[in-house]
User: Which sequence fits this backbone?
């Protein structure tokens, strides 16, 4: 099935899943006469409570007249009732018809915001968090408070009162939230059922983030394994950081499922979010092969800094509205830019961009979905953040945004696997091509120097890699009068690998063919130049051809190559353009005399361009002084100095027996 259909199907599945969200609300109740007889061993209180802003210790008493108190529902934030920036608030509920003589009664509380104290018929039975100073905590795990024997009246009645501290040391509007929201649970139960209830609540709240953290960790391990195998692929490192940071952020949520969500945990969580955002930008940049520009660095810095707006606001620095803008604005900008970068890369022919784009779009759409929901909350268009769409899976309620993240992680895993398979396939093809090029070059570089009467010839070839661009050929030539001569060609092809090997093959074949028809170095270079004109593909080749006759006469033509050295001195040659650049180029011949015992040395630029650790070049002066040494010594010295390119050294010496004295 085509990939785009798979991605479309996944997204349609999300849309369909949203139809099964958790919008169901509990039945309305009367907080002044809450009838417990309709329940079994576990009485679920709410969702309606008596409410009053402010703080008065008398409000814990069952005898206090709360007939003027307002009834509110946990389905709505306090701002919907007109309450803003509240420091303290009280909630009360009158429970009737509890079984007579009930013992070991326990009050269970979960999913509650802010610090609080709880009273049963005026007796303080427990609490959580500080009741003064900056307060920002969300208790997600179940807390159990034993109700002392004798507190419940003989008629089975009990007045439960909660005192909440909502102050967060600043006018940031946090007091407009409802400390008891839709998912808040307040229960009356027997103490025997508390351990089971606690484990169930923790598992229920943690399951979603455990799966998210585990999935992120799994894909992160895959990514770091790929990076350890391919250290040059920095995108795998960026993916690892992104996935592990996201996994850590989910792990913080898992921890908060069993304890209280505090400001300290908030800092850790948003630090992970900031790191993940920066790593995601780097991941996309590296996949696209883009340079790290100033605007990208600025975006990364702004995204990381903006992540800390939320814990700052919750610590009383700034406002919740500034927190909202500062947190979401960089994230939404990043989402748009990443999608635009990938789309642009796709249009330019980058297949990796096309494969990564659906995953980033899925992730970005989930971010915009969250932004819209939180914006609706701030504008009081939706009851509470926790009324966001969700998907029921077994007994667990999974928010739609989390479900999208599951798909995103799987899409990233699919992308990494497909990318690795492609890289492995390309690497195998490159190795095969490299081995083929190496085989071609080994055939074209002479294994043995032919024996030429009257001449002593040595050659050394040391490629910088497995396949180089240097070449040389030595051909014996029989003149008409029967005396022996030798034709030598040495050159350097721009580029490496199979293209260079094929160019060398073409040049060597041309040289060998021409040697049967002419021994003129100038004519040979001209013919090789014509052959190269339509096959250079923007490259060029330097080449020098010489003929050495038995009497020591040297005839040399040069196409942009390094001049040879005679007895340690550079020869002054007429120089033509390298091969493959111009059809109008001609190659003049220069004549010199090689005397008995003198050495002619031919080099490629790998000798003079050798570079030591400090960056200094070997240079022409060192090459001239070294040119009187044997070929092996020349190549070895240049290689030890610091080989940076292919090194070829060829020496030709006229034997004494073949010398002709003037």
Assistant:
């Amino acid at each position: 099935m085509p990939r785009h259909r798979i991605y479309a199907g996944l997204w349609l599945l999300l849309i369909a899943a949203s139809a099964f969200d958790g919008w169901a609300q509990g039945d309305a109740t009367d907080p002044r006469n809450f009838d417990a007889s309709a329940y079994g061993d576990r009485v679920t209180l709410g969702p309606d409570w008596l409410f009053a802003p402010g703080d008065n210790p008398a409000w814990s008493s069952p005898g206090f007249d709360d007939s003027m108190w307002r009834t509110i529902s946990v389905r709505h934030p306090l701002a919907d009732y007109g309450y803003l920036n509240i420091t303290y608030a009280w909630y009360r509920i009158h429970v009737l018809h509890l079984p007579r003589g009930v013992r070991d009664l326990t009050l269970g509380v979960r999913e509650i915001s802010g610090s609080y104290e709880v009273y049963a018929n005026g007796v303080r039975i427990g609490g959580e968090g500080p009741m003064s100073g900056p307060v920002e905590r969300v208790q997600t795990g179940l807390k159990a408070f034993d109700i002392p024997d004798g507190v419940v009246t003989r008629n089975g009645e009990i007045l439960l009162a909660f005192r909440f501290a909502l102050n967060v040391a600043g006018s940031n509007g946090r007091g407009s939230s409802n400390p008891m929201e839709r998912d808040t649970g307040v229960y009356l139960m027997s103490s025997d059922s508390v351990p089971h209830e606690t484990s169930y609540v923790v598992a229920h709240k943690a399951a979603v983030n455990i799966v998210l953290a585990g999935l992120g960790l799994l894909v992160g391990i895959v990514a770091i394994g790929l990076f350890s195998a391919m250290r040059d692929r920095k995108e795998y490192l960026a993916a690892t950081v992104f996935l592990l940071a996201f996994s850590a952020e989910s792990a913080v949520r898992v921890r908060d499922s069993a304890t209280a969500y505090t400001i300290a945990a908030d800092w850790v969580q948003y630090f992970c979010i900031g790191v993940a955002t920066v790593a995601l930008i780097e991941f996309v940049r590296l996949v696209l092969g883009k340079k790290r520009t100033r605007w990208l660095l600025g975006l990364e810095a702004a995204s990381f800094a903006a992540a800390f707006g939320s814990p700052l606001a919750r610590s009383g620095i700034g406002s919740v509205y500034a927190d909202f803008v500062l947190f979401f604005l960089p994230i939404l900008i990043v989402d748009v830019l990443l999608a635009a970068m990938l789309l642009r890369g796709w249009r330019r022919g980058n297949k990796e961009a096309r494969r990564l784009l659906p995953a980033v779009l899925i992730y970005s759409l989930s971010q915009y979905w969250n932004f819209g929901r939180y914006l609706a909350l701030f504008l009081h268009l939706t009851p509470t953040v926790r009324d966001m769409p969700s998907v029921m899976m077994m007994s667990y309620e999974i928010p739609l945004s989390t479900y999208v993240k599951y798909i995103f992680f799987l899409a990233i895993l699919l992308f990494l696997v497909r990318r690795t398979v492609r890289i492995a396939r390309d690497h195998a093809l490159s190795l095969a091509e490299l081995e083929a090029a190496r085989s071609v070059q080994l055939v074209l570089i002479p294994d043995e120097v032919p024996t030429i009467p009257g001449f002593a010839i040595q050659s050394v070839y040391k490629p910088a890699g497995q396949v180089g661009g240097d070449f040389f050929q030595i051909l014996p030539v029989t003149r008409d009068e029967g005396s022996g001569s030798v034709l030598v060609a040495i050159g350097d092809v721009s580029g490496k690998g199979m293209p260079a090997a094929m160019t060398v093959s073409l040049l060597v074949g041309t040289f060998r063919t021409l040697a049967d028809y002419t021994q003129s170095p100038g004519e040979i270079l001209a013919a090789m130049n014509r052959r190269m004109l339509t096959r250079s593909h923007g490259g060029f080749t330097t080449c020098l051809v010489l003929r050495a006759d038995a009497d020591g006469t040297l005839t040399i033509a040069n196409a942009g190559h390094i001049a040879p050295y005679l007895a340690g001195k550079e020869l002054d040659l007429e120089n033509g353009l390298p091969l493959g650049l111009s059809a109008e180029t001609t190659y003049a011949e220069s004549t010199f005399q090689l005397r008995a015992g003198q050495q002619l040395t031919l080099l490629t630029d790998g000798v003079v361009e050798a570079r030591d650790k400090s960056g200094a070049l070997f240079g022409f002066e060192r090459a001239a002084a070294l040119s009187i040494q044997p070929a092996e010594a020349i190549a070895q010295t240049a290689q030890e100095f610091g080989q940076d390119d292919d090194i070829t050294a060829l020496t030709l010496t006229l034997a004494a027996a073949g010398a002709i004295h003037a």
Notes: The CA atoms of residues 242 and 320 lie 27 Å apart.
